[in-house]
């Protein structure tokens, strides 16, 4: 599938293809949201904080390397990258502390991404189970869930604390659908990153990609659907193609 607004990857509305190639009716019963970059644009803030450290040392953090690591943990070692740029060993404890200072000064005012609250509320009106599956640790997302009064929207929340491997490994999504009491083919994942999308697809979910400023240049041809934003979108219309 080429990237495009409301593009569908090689399947007819209301059907999925089984491992044997047979067409099966799909009925969506759940939607599972990613967090960073999908619900809240912490990814831009994280990049800006990291790049702030690089700029203090006279360098720029390469966007292409950073974007490829979005949606997972330990996918890119920024401290090691800065050490390579500067030719000196950067103290990791100092790097982490400096990042924390810069990040804290930016993140607490970050709003929900456009259309997220409407999508969460519409999911409940439609009777869909709603999950959250994030490669971040619970301690990272809890302050945001509290600040934005989001926890009440989710029937299941799973983080890096709950699995041995995070995205692109499918463990988080497999755990999410089990907690929601649905089959993988009855659920749709909403993701902003390739790592997250691949995790969802490997777990057997449909994947809707909603790229943000950090991931807009990535190739989301693996997605079942790509939309530029959830703002103004009707969740019912997005999942209707998999419902008969």
Automatic annotation (TrEMBL):
TM annotation in the entry: none
The UniProt record lists the keyword Hydrolase: yes
Give any Pfam family that matches.
HAD_2
Hydrolase recorded as keyword: yes
Single GO MF descriptor: metal ion binding
What keywords appear on the UniProt entry?
Hydrolase, Metal-binding
Report the PANTHER family cross-referenced here: 2-DEOXYGLUCOSE-6-PHOSPHATE PHOSPHATASE 2 (PTHR18901), PSEUDOURIDINE-5'-PHOSPHATASE (PTHR18901:SF38)
Entry's family note: Belongs to the HAD-like hydrolase superfamily. CbbY/CbbZ/Gph/YieH family.
Please name the NCBIfam families in this protein's record.
HAD-SF-IA-v3 (TIGR01509)
Q: What is this protein called?
A: HAD family hydrolase
Question: To which species is this protein native?
Answer: Cohnella ginsengisoli
């Amino acid at each position: 599938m080429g990237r495009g607004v409301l593009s569908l990857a090689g399947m007819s509305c209301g059907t999925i293809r089984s491992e044997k190639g047979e067409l099966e009716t799909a009925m969506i019963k759940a939607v599972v949201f990613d967090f960073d970059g999908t619900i809240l644009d912490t990814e831009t803030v994280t990049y800006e904080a990291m790049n702030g450290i690089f700029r203090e040392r006279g360098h720029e953090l390469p966007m292409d390397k950073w974007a490829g690591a979005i949606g997972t943990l330990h996918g890119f070692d920024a401290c090691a990258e800065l050490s390579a740029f500067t030719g000196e060993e950067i103290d990791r404890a100092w790097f982490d502390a400096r990042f924390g200072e810069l990040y804290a000064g930016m993140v607490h005012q970050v709003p929900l991404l456009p259309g997220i609250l409407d999508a969460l509320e519409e999911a409940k009106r439609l009777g869909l189970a709603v999950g959250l599956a994030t490669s971040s640790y619970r301690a990272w997302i809890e302050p945001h869930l509290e600040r934005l009064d989001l926890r009440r929207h989710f029937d299941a929340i799973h983080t890096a604390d709950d699995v041995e491997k995070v995205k692109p490994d499918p463990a988080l999504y497999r755990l999410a659908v089990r907690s929601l009491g649905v089959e993988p083919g009855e659920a749709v994942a909403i993701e902003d990153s390739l790592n997250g999308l691949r995790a969802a697809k490997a777990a057997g979910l449909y994947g809707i990609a909603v790229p943000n400023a950090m991931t807009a240049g990535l190739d989301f041809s693996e997605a079942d659907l790509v939309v530029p934003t959830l703002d103004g979108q009707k969740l019912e219309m997005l999942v209707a193609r998999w419902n008969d």
